[in-house]
Amino acid sequence: MEKIKILILNLVFYVMFFVFSITSIPLMALLGLLSSLVFSKRVVLRRWRKAISWYGKIVIYFLPFPFVQVKYDDLSNRKEKGPFIIICNHRAASDPFLMACLPYEECIQIVNIWPFKIPLIGWGAKMAGYLSVKEMPFENFLQKTTKLIEEKVNIISFPEGTRSNGKEMKQFYSSIFRVAIKNKCSIVPLCISGNEKIPAKGTGILQPGIIKLRRLPALRWEDYKDCSPFILKNRVRDIIKKELEQMDCGI
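Request: output the structure for the sequence above.
Response:
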């Protein structure tokens, strides 16, 4: 019975994902092109990023349902003001799509090089201004992220660099924390649990399950202003690691 569920999940999901992507992304691009004739580049970017968020919502909430369900839990103080640098653990290739759960008007992601190589999706990410820290000197990266923060754009980062092998977290890279310190930006820890096999590392096969995301209270500049990038990255990593241990136990 379990094998039948897996077969149905993957067959239905990938067929629908392919059809949805090759129809929706070109349509989004056409609407973006028409919008650029009327609106400023800044307005078009904002709308493009919002469209990507809606695309992600359909991919994670609708296409794999009911075999895969996504639950988002917000433990933040609603009075917190952005823009935020959102720090996530990285367990699966599905993590970037899960960012559509976040209730923010405008976000970009710091990604590895490989997502840009995915047909249509990679092009859409580039058009939205997604960044790869590995493809540019840090000074250029700092300049681009600073500009985004000034424009009130939230930045999502997976500082492990590549996905972990299961539930064990890798060490964090420092670049995004140097950006946070430079801009005195609030940092939001975001924990992702349950998608270690959605899909498992080394395979594209999806397993049924429940994915949980938990948004923790932000660390404000006043909370970490005396930290070096090294201390700050380990502090945030420890916060996420501790919360994940509870989430993995069903707490």
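The mean pLDDT is 92.
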